[in-house]
Amino acid sequence: MYQKYIFILTFIFIVKSNYSQDRRVITTAVPFLMISADARASGLGEQGVATTPDAFSQHWNPSKYVFSENRSGFGVSYTPYLSKLVSDVFLANINYFEIINERSSWSASFKYFSLGDIDIIQNPQDIPILENPNEFTLDASYTLKLSDYFSMAVSGRFLMSDVKLQSVDSDSDSASSFAVDISGFYQSDEQAYQNFNGIWRAGFNLSNLGPRMKYEELGKKNFIPTNLKFGTAFDFIFDSSNKVSLNLELNKLLVPTPSIPIYNSNDQIIGYNQADVNFLSGIFKSFGDAPNGFSEELQELTIALGLEYLYDDSFAIRLGYFNEHENKGARKYITFGTGFKLNEINLDLSYLLSTSNVISPLENTLRFSFTYNFN
What we know:
By secondary structure, the protein is mainly β. The chain contains five helices and 21 strands. The protein has one domain: Beta Barrel (Porin).
């Protein structure tokens, strides 16, 4: 029954859109899509739209793949979730990419989010009924290099949210949707400066453009996490063995701000609902629907900073910081990471330490990723 309680809390987080008067937090269906999908990006403050290409670029910016030094690559990552409370809630991610020729590539990934095993007991003497609610996405991308320095990619994605409990309601259906991503990536040539060489990078990803998901048992449609990322980075190349990368990323959910008041029986405002509009209208409304105007719209931007030191292309140390405004979720944390490369194999690890009063579900969690590159 304890696990059932955890599931209910998670389910409320997924579909709830009512909030206190002073905190209008934007929520969506399938929020696991906003979780960093690999340990390298996690160690850099959970960012990756403008970092150097790797096997996990599918989640962040598939436009990067055509700039990869490897012909193809395969990556697997595992992220425990709510590890302080349960041991069977996790996010798993599988990626593959392949360079077609010098100007194009294709890639695909599969993400699976398990909400753990839940024992359903109607009466104390009953034999528990085991449920395993889960969510997953399956996507594929095609990337084309439009010039020597700039590329774009388009992705298609299928989303499935199976968080129903058949033993409680056998008539409830899974929620599903589809989405499209559009991304771009720029990388300069190596340039000589006074005491070092450098490479500039920049990228964007407009992700999860698609219709809302409907949970039949709730009788309402929920926005999927349509999202816009912008990022830039610079590599300080001191010599053939020492390189430092500085990375910055801004992120905004293109989902309406909860702004429709909800009243209790005493006519007091107890929360807010999102506007009931289609996803395209929701995207445009998201740029100007915050009740407190432009200042609140700025609060909906998250920022990530990351620093990566790479020695001899075989050992990396990473440090990152992620910040979200107190009224929009209050996610604030420092991340640490390291990476090791041996021939074609990469192993990356990361760790998150919360700096907010709102403790992250990933607090004190060790995440790891494994990559095999085909040169």
